[in-house]
Recover the amino acids of this structure.
C-alpha cells in the first residue's frame, strides 16, 4: 500500500475491478441481472380492496410474489427483491470496515510514538473512529439481519409483503424494526465517516474547519435525536390513546426545548472527543506569538500591535483570532487551577 505505483492507481483500479466482477457475474448467471442483483416489485392496493389479493407487478425474471391488501388501503409502494450477491453486498461493508479499523488503529498507535508525526497520527485516529463507528453500528444491525434470517428464513426485502400472513403482526413489527434499523445505520455511519474523514484530511488546511465540523455534527445529532424521539413518542401515544400523537410530541418536545442547552453541551463534549482542536500552520504560528505575549499574563499596546500585524501577515480574520485567544486563555486557566 505504501508503494507509489499502488497508491497512484487505486482510485481507478478498485472501481474497475468491481465493475468487471459484477459484469462477469451478470453475463455468466442464467438469471442475468435479477439473479445477481435482485429484481423489484410494484405493489398496489386500490380503495375497497381490504383483505383482497394485492396487485403485484414483478420485474422480468423475479419470483412471483403474493400478498393481501391491509386495512389502510389504498396504497402503493415499490419493494426491491434481493439475491445472494445482494445480501452479501449488504453485510460486506461491515467486514471491510472492521479490517480497515484494525489497520488504522495500528497506524495511529505507531505514528503517535513519534512527535514529528503527530498530525499524521491525528489523521489516522480520525479514520479509525470513522471505520470503528461503521463496524460497530452496522455490525449490530447485521447481527439483527442474521437473527432475522434465522427466524424468517432466507432474507429478502420482498418478504415484507407476506411476512404478516405467514408469521403474524408481531413478527412484522420485529421484521420492520430490524430492516429500518439497518437502513438507518447506513445513513448514520455515512454521516459519521464523512465528518471524521473530512476532519482528518482538512483539519490543518482550512481555517476553523474543526470548529465548523463539531458544530455541524452536534446540530445533526441533536436534530436526529429529537426527530426520532418525537416520532417514537407520537406513535406510542397514538397506539395508547388513538389520535393522541400530538400529546406524545408535546411530552418529548417541551423537555427538548427546555433542556436544549445541557443536551447541546453534552453532545459538544462528545464531538470534541471525536474531533479535538486542530489548527493550521498559520494558526499555530499565531498561537506561538500569543504565547510569548502572554508570558506575564498581560497584553500591552505594543504587543497587541505586534499580534495584529502577525495576524494580518498570516491571513487570520478577527473572528478566528478571538476564538484562538479564547481557547488559549481557557487552557491557561485550566492549567493554573
Amino acid at each position: 500500500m505504501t508503494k507509489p505505483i499502488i497508491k497512484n492507481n487505486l482510485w481507478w483500479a478498485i472501481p474497475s475491478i468491481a465493475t468487471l466482477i459484477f459484469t462477469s457475474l451478470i453475463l455468466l448467471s442464467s438469471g442475468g441481472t435479477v439473479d445477481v442483483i435482485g429484481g423489484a416489485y410494484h405493489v398496489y392496493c386500490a380503495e375497497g380492496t381490504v383483505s383482497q389479493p394485492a396487485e403485484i407487478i414483478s420485474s422480468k425474471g423475479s419470483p412471483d410474489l403474493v400478498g393481501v391488501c391491509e386495512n389502510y388501503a389504498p396504497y402503493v409502494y415499490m419493494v426491491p427483491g434481493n439475491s445472494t450477491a445482494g445480501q452479501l453486498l449488504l453485510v460486506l461493508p461491515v467486514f471491510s470496515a472492521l479490517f480497515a479499523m484494525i489497520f488504522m488503529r495500528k497506524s495511529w498507535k505507531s505514528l503517535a510514538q513519534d512527535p514529528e508525526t503527530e498530525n499524521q497520527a491525528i489523521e489516522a485516529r480520525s479514520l479509525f473512529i470513522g471505520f470503528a463507528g461503521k463496524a460497530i453500528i452496522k455490525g449490530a444491525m447485521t447481527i439483527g439481519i442474521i437473527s432475522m434470517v434465522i427466524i424468517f428464513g432466507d432474507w429478502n426485502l420482498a418478504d415484507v409483503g407476506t411476512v404478516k400472513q405467514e408469521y403474524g403482526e408481531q413478527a412484522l413489527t420485529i421484521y420492520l424494526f430490524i430492516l429500518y434499523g439497518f437502513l438507518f445505520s447506513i445513513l448514520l455511519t455515512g454521516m459519521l465517516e464523512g465528518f471524521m474523514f473530512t476532519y482528518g484530511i482538512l483539519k490543518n488546511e482550512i481555517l476553523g474547519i474543526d470548529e465548523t465540523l463539531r458544530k455541524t455534527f452536534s446540530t445533526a445529532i441533536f436534530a436526529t435525536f429529537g426527530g426520532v424521539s418525537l416520532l417514537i413518542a407520537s406513535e406510542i401515544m397514538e397506539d395508547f390513546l388513538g389520535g393522541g400523537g400530538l400529546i406524545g410530541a408535546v411530552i418529548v418536545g417541551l423537555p427538548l426545548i427546555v433542556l436544549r442547552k445541557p443536551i447541546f453541551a453534552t453532545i459538544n463534549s462528545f464531538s470534541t472527543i471525536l474531533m479535538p482542536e486542530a489548527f493550521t500552520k498559520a494558526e499555530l504560528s499565531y498561537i506561538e506569538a500569543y504565547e510569548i505575549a502572554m508570558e506575564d499574563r498581560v497584553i500591552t499596546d505594543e504587543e497587541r500591535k505586534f499580534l495584529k500585524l502577525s495576524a494580518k501577515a498570516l491571513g487570520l480574520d478577527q473572528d478566528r483570532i478571538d476564538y484562538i485567544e479564547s481557547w488559549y486563555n481557557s487552557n491557561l486557566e485550566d492549567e493554573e487551577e
